[in-house]
Design goal:
single chain, 492 residues, alpha/beta, TIM Barrel, four-stranded mixed beta sheet
């Protein structure tokens, strides 16, 4: 039996104090909610609502009903309908960072605006990384109209990839076409509800505000059976208290508010209790998300979510560095290790750089290895026919090695994770013979290799054509005559 390591930052008393303070904020100060329908729904269920100021003051009973209604877990499925995620217990799934505006060009060492070709490469690579469980809509291609950018990312992910997608929308109109795309893949809305294909990110606006689009997303997703992840972004020391506990109180209030909106509007809607905490670095006026304090808050968010009996999410295992360097590895590794030791169910971050403003496909292949090592760490230490020890050591002394021992052959692959080409474990002579390649060079070669080894999605051709029809209609509605090269089936 394995002895699994764990990390906790909050004891039960502190969790309950944070929850109590957050509930007091909701029941005495309330939330600003810029959505008339949500305000009406909350008012009908007991909240004190002022539609002039867009204010809703909750009741304890309203919060309790929401917590009782929300599911304790749910599953996610790929485009072929096969299960990929089980958000129960302490099972951990890694997904790439999302919604970056830029992409790292590792060859030129520049930060550029991404294109459709970049996005297709990303989907092809991400689909072959065994320790990245899902796609995200990682970055925003700059060669399409921004009005369709959200739907376009999902479209490319469904066209070229098979993994489920963590995504989001910027408008109600885009949600409609994104929902139609998912129905096209599943065959019907009923089947989509039975086997969810995506998770939509819904973000409040700190402090203590849920905006119109975020509220609409909660309602649309809940009514369609699409899971959501609640992602408050408290900025400690600027728009949330500077202390970690104070930030957790602010985060909890905003998250509970999202839960109430979701469950009051759509009882039983699947939700991940999550967040993307950051800290305001007053020296540089930046918002580091991989600061150790932000990572600690993410772990605390997970503990509060688990206390409430909910599956959890966090933006962690990413870096604020701008290049694929030691800082990128340091920050990402620390976050990945804390995530698996905390048991965060959905970990968003691999591939992310520059305060999530930049994405790197090369970093994603490195992070795949980081995630694998972190997962191995979380498995802990297991006794594997190690007792009695005497026979094995007698064999060692007799043979002078254990390279071909039955014990070695039986347990080598179970006990040791052997990383791929990106991680260099060669001896000095071979390292020199192979050209003394840097991490960036090895990662770039791996991206090229995976791109070449890509096999088209097994999604049926008629479904791919249906997706393209939906996307072309949206493009024309936005004033585009055609979609960029490579974005239609058979024209890559």
């Amino acid at each position: 039996m394995a002895t699994k390591p764990q990390v906790t930052f909050l004891n039960r008393d502190l969790v309950e104090q944070i929850l109590c303070q957050a509930r007091d904020i909701l029941c005495q100060i309330g939330l600003t909610i810029h959505h008339p329908e949500v305000l009406s729904i909350l008012g009908d269920h007991g909240a004190k609502v002022d539609k002039t100021s867009f204010k809703a003051v909750f009741t304890g009973d309203l919060i309790d009903r929401a917590l009782k209604s929300v599911p304790g877990s749910f599953k996610l499925y790929d485009v072929l309908g096969e299960p990929t995620h089980d958000f129960s217990g302490d099972q951990v799934h890694f997904t790439p960072s999302s919604s970056s505006l830029n992409i790292l060009n590792i060859r030129a060492n520049t930060i550029d605006r991404p294109t459709t070709a970049d996005y297709i490469t990303y989907v092809k690579v991400a689909g072959q990384l065994p320790h990245i469980a899902s796609q995200s809509t990682a970055f925003i291609p700059a060669d399409v109209d921004e009005k369709i950018a959200d739907a376009y990312r999902l479209y490319l992910g469904l066209l070229y990839g098979e993994k489920p997608v963590v995504t989001g929308t910027f408008s109600a109109a885009s949600f409609k076409v994104m929902y139609e795309m998912q129905k096209a893949v599943r065959g019907s809305g009923v089947r989509l509800r039975e086997k969810p294909l995506t998770i939509f990110t819904c973000c409040p606006t700190s402090p203590l505000r849920w905006g119109d689009m975020a509220c609409q997303n909660l309602l649309d997703c809940g009514r369609s059976g699409i899971p959501v992840e609640l992602v408050p972004v408290p900025l400690s020391g600027f728009i949330s208290p500077v202390t970690l506990v104070g930030t957790l109180v602010a985060h909890t209030a905003e998250n509970l508010g999202g839960l109430v909106i979701s469950q009051t509007g759509c009882p039983g809607a699947p939700v991940l209790y999550g967040g993307a905490p950051a800290f305001f670095d007053i020296r540089h006026e930046t918002t580091p998300m991989s600061a150790v304090e932000a990572q600690m808050v993410s772990c605390g968010v997970n503990e509060i979510g688990k206390y409430l009996g909910l599956p959890t999410q966090a933006y962690i295992a990413l870096s604020d560095a701008r290049m694929l360097d030691a800082q990128a590895g340091l920050e990402t590794s620390m976050g990945a290790v804390l995530a698996v030791l905390s048991g965060i169910n959905q970990v968003a971050g691999p591939g992310g750089l520059d305060f999530v403003n930049t994405f790197s496909i090369e970093k994603l292949v490195l992070d795949n290895e980081i995630c694998a090592m972190a997962q191995r760490l979380a498995q802990g230490i297991t006794v594997r026919e190690d007792f009695p020890a005497l026979p094995l050591f007698e064999e060692l002394l007799r043979e002078k090695h254990l390279l071909i021992a039955r014990h070695t052959r039986r347990y080598l692959k179970e006990e040791h994770y052997l990383p791929g080409r990106v991680i260099d474990r060669s001896n000095l002579k071979r390292f020199q013979e192979q050209g003394k390649k840097s991490l960036g060079e090895r990662a770039g070669e791996e991206v090229a290799r995976l791109t070449q080894s890509y096999r088209p999605s097994r999604l049926a051709d008629e479904i791919k054509r249906a997706l393209s029809g939906l996307m072309l209609h949206e493009a024309k509605r936005a004033g585009m005559e055609s979609l960029p090269a490579g974005s239609l089936p058979g024209k890559a």
